[in-house]
Amino acid sequence: MAAALRPGDERRHPGEPVEEWLFTCWSADGEVGVVSGFRIVAPSRGWYWAALARRGHPLLHVTEWDVPLRADPFLVKAAGLWAEHICDEPFRQWTVSNETFASALDHADDALDRAYGTPTAIAFDLEWYADAEPQEIEHGYEQLGEVHGAIEFASAPTLELAAVPAWRSHRWGSAVQRMRRPPALAHTGQRCAFAFPDGTTTDWVLTPAGWFERAET
Asked: What is the DSSP letter of 216?
């Protein structure tokens, strides 16, 4: 573990204007990928976003840009949305869950516009386990791991995830910008995109090594 990190760093840092927790996982063949993020942007408000990308299926896309913070900031509730992030053991295990309606988008580009799609019931129940020590990055740290769990749908079989590769980050401070990933120069994989209220965007592509920045062609 990086010497400067302490178990308490997994929790919220009171007084910091921005704080973000981001969890991802993917199948080793690059066919399935998950993103789940939560950012505190004001003393009483936050952003929540999540997505499931699967080859041969619409992108299931979730955004809520006005989340009222609760006494437990890891419990996210808004109209039609429940999500929870539980630190079971610092730097070792997290539980990441939600129940909501995603927008089913036929094209990832739609996620960068109004993200209008068919409402689709979805529920994440994921256990995130570390398999490496956290590494310090600008404004926080990142960590590799694996995920076990399931994603449930109202009218389709449950998607089981067993020891799939995973990556997460936690950042805080006054200068936290959108998370950038290394560029994927050849990007034929599944895409996951978000347009944030501050005008920034992410446009990621899935590879067998995880989520990478979609490079311009």
From this structure: P
